[in-house]
Amino acid sequence: xxxxxxxxxxxxxKRISREMxxxxxVTLFYCFAAVLLAFVIVFSIGMKISxxxxxxxxxxxxxxxxxxxxxxxKMLSPKRGDIIAFLPxxxxxxxxxxxxxxxxxxxxVQIINGYVYINGELLAEDESYDKIADAGIAETExxxxxxxxxxxxxxxxxxxxxxxxNIGPIKKETIAGRAWFKMNCDEETMGLVK
Length: 194
Description:
Largest sheet: 8 strands, antiparallel
CATH class: Mainly Beta
Structural class: alpha+beta
Helix content: 10-25%
Order of helices and strands: HEEHEEEEEEEEEE
Number of domains: 1
Oligomer: single chain
Shape: elongated
């Protein structure tokens, strides 16, 4: 009988111990708890609404779903450039409007020759905004009260906003919150609203 010289390997059978099963279940439990907690936090301070119309293109598109942060303005005030959700004149029977904050409380806002002026000075804005064809009520200077904001749609000439007599300046109490995340129309992904 010939013997083979060299190394021989024996494969040890792995056993699933109670400790390993326990670790797997604990890990799964913590993952589930973290996801549940994140879901509860997002939806307790958030609100999902749909963009209606083309007034905020290209930032937001018609039918695009947007998650609104309802908590942020309980601690802070809206700032210039924020996209806010509000009910026009506080009307609960209306849908939420999404517009960009242009004028802040105490400021004087006027639209002259298609451009926005704040306190008599031209507002420095992105060149992608169209020249405003209709100044509406902002043709004459508007002095915002201590709780009022002046808002415009990004698609300036196809927007019903603070220039419209039936909307006018937005009272802080009618603001639901700030646009937080948007669901992309072509992909099922979320992105920050800018």
